[in-house]
Amino acid sequence: MADETTEIAVDTGEEGSWRDRALERSLRTAKAKARTRSDRFIATAMEILQESGRTDFTVQELVDRSRTSLRSFYQYFSGKDELLLALLEESIAQSVAMWRETIEGMDTLSALKTVVTSVYAGEGGTGAGSLNRGMAPYHVGLSDSHTQDYQRAISPMARVLHELIDKGVEEGVIRSDLPSDKLGTTFIQALIGSTLFTALSKSTAQRKVDGETMWEFLRLGLVGPAT
Q1: Residue 59 pLDDT exceeds 80
Q2: Least confident stretch, 30-34, 93-97, 135-139
Q3: What pTM was estimated for this model as a whole?
Q4: What pLDDT does residue 166 have?
Q5: 68 Ramachandran zone, left/alpha/beta (phi>0; psi -120 to 50)
Q6: Other CB atoms within 10 Å distance of the CB of residue 45
Q7: What is the DSSP string of the chain?
Q8: Whether the Cβ atoms of residue 102 and residue 160 lie closer than 8 Å to each other
Q9: Domain ranges of the chain
């Protein structure tokens, strides 16, 4: 009599197998935990900067304050520079989301003015001003030592400004005698450079550049010479 053989279903690697689904759930859970822990480090670093304007805090200080461990920190960040890049990326992403919501329905020049003045907002006290002052010394260093990462971090801000300037050129409210991409790049460099210099400046409050002054300067460059 022939031996009876019980056939057992074997995973052939086809998409949708129980192993795929189990792995997907496992990875989803791991990613969620990693996101929560890395967000805790970023949030703690942001708290320190907003409270004190300091970026000279140590990784150990950050770990102690976030009630985590050095081992946990180095699972997510290679060092302090990578954390600061993440902090920069997060703060810019939050700002851009706020700008896009605020400027919806505005005319182009009013939208650009809103962005410029909001960049300067809060320089006199804690909160956003302290965050800007704290990060300012690191912009140049990070742009030099982590060029691609730095460019990626600031790209959302650059994108929204380029979009607005391109729109203004199409509408005829911004000059068209210069290439719009170069005009946008010049605008962004002037805005970032002025913001960093203002954050680092030891000048008296009366001599510091404010958002309204900077906007008027940039606006004249955008609209071109009077005809």
Answers
A1: yes
A2: 30-34
A3: 0.72
A4: 96
A5: beta
A6: 25
A7: -PPP----------TT-HHHHHHHHHHHHHHHHHHHHHHHHHHHHHHHHHHH------HHHHHHHHT--HHHHHHH-SSHHHHHHHHHHHHHHHHHHHHHHHHTT--HHHHHHHHHHHHHTTTTSSTHHHHHHHHHHHHHHHHHHSHHHHHHHHHHHHHHHHHHHHHHHHHTSS--SS-HHHHHHHHHHHHHHHHHHHHH--S-TTTS--HHHHHHHHHHHHH-S--
A8: no
A9: 80-223
Report phi then psi at 55, rounded to 5.
-115, 10
As a whole number, mean pLDDT of residues 99-121 equals 91
The 10s digit of each residue's pLDDT in 190-223 is: 988 887 777 666 655 556 778 899 999 999 999 9
Residue 139 to residues 51, 117, 132, 146, 187: CA-CA distances in angstroms? 20, 20, 10, 10, 17
Fold category of 80-223 in CATH: Tetracycline Repressor; domain 2 (1.10.357)
